[in-house]
Design goal:
Elements (H helix, E strand, L loop, with lengths): L4 E5 L5 H11 L3 H4 L1 H8 L4 E8 L2 E10 L4 E9 L8 H13 L3 E4 L5 H5 L18
Parallel strand pairs: 4-5
Antiparallel strand pairs: 1-2, 2-3, 3-4
């Protein structure tokens, strides 16, 4: 029988687990500078949550919000062995409850089937990188 998964606010003790999930996904930003990753996960306007089983971080989500209307999902990951159990949905629910807002916007280049399974409205978007002036 698998261990119960607890979804809760992120704390400093969770950082190594978050870094491990990012490394497993091939996301270099957090593993490259763990101190900066912790600052990003705890910055003003950011709500970060984790999912843990037997003390091991098996998921995390980072949400930015104006606290009233809009929230933006920056990152979410669930360990491969724990996918399909509703953990990501639970993390989204807790993060939005804690952050405030009426909806979550996101940009993705993966997991489209997961997001399409949630109530949503599909919109076109752009991810813009500097430099902005030519």
């Amino acid at each position: 029988m698998s261990a119960a998964v607890e979804v809760r606010p992120y704390g400093r003790a969770d950082l190594d687990g978050v870094i491990g999930l990012c490394a497993a996904e091939g996301w270099p930003s957090f593993p490259a500078d763990p101190a900066r990753a912790h600052r990003a996960l705890t910055a003003p306007g950011v709500t970060s949550v984790v999912a843990a089983a037997d003390g091991e971080v098996v998921g995390f989500a980072q949400l930015l919000s104006d606290g009233e209307i809009q929230a933006h999902l920056s990152l979410i990951a669930t360990a491969a062995a724990h996918r399909g159990q509703g953990i990501a949905r639970r993390m989204l629910a807790l993060a939005l409850e804690r952050a405030g807002g009426g909806r979550i916007d996101l940009v993705t280049d993966s997991a489209e089937d997961f997001y399409a399974g949630l109530q949503h409205h599909r919109m076109a978007g752009f991810r813009i990188y500097p430099p902005f002036a030519r």
